[in-house]
Amino acid sequence: MVRLATFRPSLIEHASIYAQAQTQKYAAAPALAAIAKTRQGKAQYDPLCLIGCIELARLEGRAPAVPKDLLTGYEGAKEEARSMIETLLATQLDDEWRTALSADLASLRGDVGKARALLDAD
Fold first, then answer.
1. In 3-state terms, what secondary structure has residue 24?
2. What pTM was estimated for this model as a whole?
3. pLDDT digits over 41-96, tens only?
4. What is the distance between the terminal CA atoms of the chain, rounded to a whole angstrom?
5. In 3-state terms, what secondary structure has residue 101?
6. Can you tell me the distance from the alpha carbon of 102 to that of 109, in angstroms, rounded to the nearest whole number?
7. In the chain, where are the structural domains located?
8. Cα–Cα distance, 16 to 46 (Å, whole number)
9. What are the backbone angles phi and psi of residue 60, rounded to the nearest 5°?
10. Are 81 and 89 in contact (CB under 8 A)?
């Protein structure tokens, strides 16, 4: 029989690495917003959608709270992404991107129900 104590150090290490990876997403958000600003058309979509996905995971409890030292940058990136997505939604988009960007906008506005409904409708 294998004892839990044998695996405990490894489990703690893996949990720590996972938590660090989760919080690094928040640190990446300002860079993703900056990348989106330098791109046009469909090249803008992926970084914006990633910010929306990060926020949806946070709202659904699938990610840790935003660390205090990252909060200002993360909130700024969310606001920039919201603004860019609103502008994109006023343009001609195919249905798939319109749905994805609409779901991301709902996430960035804090509307988990709408975001999830849009994503699960497919």
1. helix
2. 0.82
3. 888 899 999 999 999 999 999 888 999 999 999 999 999 999 999 999 999 999 99
4. 46
5. helix
6. 10
7. 42-122
8. 28
9. -85, 0
10. no
- Supply the Cα-derived Rg of the chain in whole angstroms: 17
* Conformational region of residue 41, where left means phi above 0, alpha means psi within -120 to 50, and beta covers everything else: left
Query: Within 39-94, where are the H helices?
Result: 42-59, 68-89
**Tokens standing for residue 66:** 């935003």
pLDDT tens, residue by residue, 3-38: 444 544 544 454 455 556 678 899 999 999 999 999
What residue type is 53 in one-letter code? C
Provide the 8-state DSSP code for 64: P
| Owner of token pair 């290490």 | 13
Token readout for 108 is 């960035």
DSSP H or E stretch at residue 41 = none
DSSP state letter for 104: H
